[in-house]
Amino acid sequence: MKAFEWYKLSAELGECPCAACNLAECYQEGTVCRKDLKEAFKWYKLAAKKYYPEAQYQLANCYLLGEGCDPDPKASFAQFKKAAENNHSTAQCNVGVLLQTGLGTEENLDEAFKWFKRSAAQNFYPACFFDSECYAKGLGVKKDPDKAEYWHQKGIELQLKGEKRS
């Protein structure tokens, strides 16, 4: 409970986006305070405006899932892209998925592949599997079974090593 109070005090001062993001997570999870998705959304949005990548990523998820706000795929894509441009590996992979499916943006397989590559370069193992699929099916890149196998194996190795998911 003490951490929640410190997060709240610091977030209310407006100088620390990390505290605002942590406070939002407390409201989102409801483990140390009452669960309040609208309050979580508010704090993620404030932290995201200060260019905090994790908050941008979480805000994108709120928009995507309609947590604390109405679902808005376009706003979700925009926030995922901001976080991705700030080197958030999970957001980079999500941008690739949204570009591949056309959810919240125009479908663009070439751009999707580029975002998967950026994410995989940070050892985000799910992105390695997307790279593998792109090479196997020729999605945004020329078909290459050898590269498909390489990225599939790399994804497995990273997953087994316990590499980061985000």
Kindly report the name of the CATH homologous superfamily of the largest domain: Tetratricopeptide repeat domain
CATH architecture of the largest domain: Alpha Horseshoe
Low-pLDDT residue spans: none
Bin the helical content: over 70%
The tally of domains stands at: 2
Instruction: Round the mean pLDDT to the nearest integer and report it.
Output: 95
Strand content: under 5%
Largest pleated sheet: none
What structural class is derived from the secondary structure elements? mainly alpha
CATH class descriptor name of the largest domain: Mainly Alpha
Q: Number of helical runs?
A: 9
CA-based shape: elongated
The total count of strands amounts to 0
Rg over CA atoms: 17 Å
Task: Kindly report the CATH topology of the largest domain.
Answer: Serine Threonine Protein Phosphatase 5, Tetratricopeptide repeat
**How far is the first residue's CA from the last residue's CA?**
26 Å
Order of helices and strands, N to C?
HHHHHHHHH
